[in-house]
Amino acid sequence: MTMSDNLHLFNQLGVVKRNIVRADKAAVEKLSRFGVSTLHEAMGRVGLMKPYMRPIYPSARICGTAVTILLQPGDNWMMHVAAEQLQPGDVAVAACTTDNDDGFFGDLLATSFRSRGAIGLIIDGGVRDVTDLTEMNFPVFSRAIHSKGTIKATLGSVNVPVVCAGAFVNPGDVIVADIDGVVVIPAARAMEVANAAEKREALEADKRAQFASGALGLDMYKMREPLEKAGMRYID
Fold this sequence. Notes:
Elements: H1 25-31, H2 36-42, E1 54-55, E2 62-71, H3 77-83, E3 90-96, E4 103-105, H4 107-115, E5 121-127, H5 130-136, E6 140-145, E7 157-158, E8 162-164, E9 167-169, E10 174-178, E11 181-185, H6 190-212, H7 217-220, H8 224-230
Parallel strand pairs: 2-3, 3-5, 4-5, 5-6
Antiparallel strand pairs: 1-6, 2-7, 2-10, 8-9, 10-11
């Protein structure tokens, strides 16, 4: 699905859902221990947003529950509407009805969001005031950094299903973001994925020890026979 699909995910614009079911807090805490790549693999290699979504500073990291925002191009009115719906531990996840790089978000909105308990922003659009946001240690993952300002004139929606950077997000889903990317974990699968990630990390720790001892992936993963069948030859 693309950005334009957001228009077909609900019946009307101008909707603000005030009561959403957020993922279990214990599951969110457990998910916070793992990186995006591990969680993506543990979930069956699904859930990733497009790779153009990048952190505004390298150490930015987020793990929290989604409050979704549907923006209109060049208009950040719904960002202010969404601020009222944020609760401690939430991540604002902003999509747009069409591709747009304008600077929807800056340090003033970050101050407002933080006062409500928000721990970060994921936005398939532009942000600005990056120096200030970095000094605030407010993590943002965006498709662009752009100084262009926005207006407040057209209704979008808050806490409806959205498609953000190619990923389907329901309000209350878990969002994990780090230098490797952004992954969306459905609220209903949060503990299942956390447990699978824990098992995966234990296996990787064992493999890491084997690699450190000099073992080769060719042998650990039993690659030699299929490589030979594929026609690979060694020439001295």
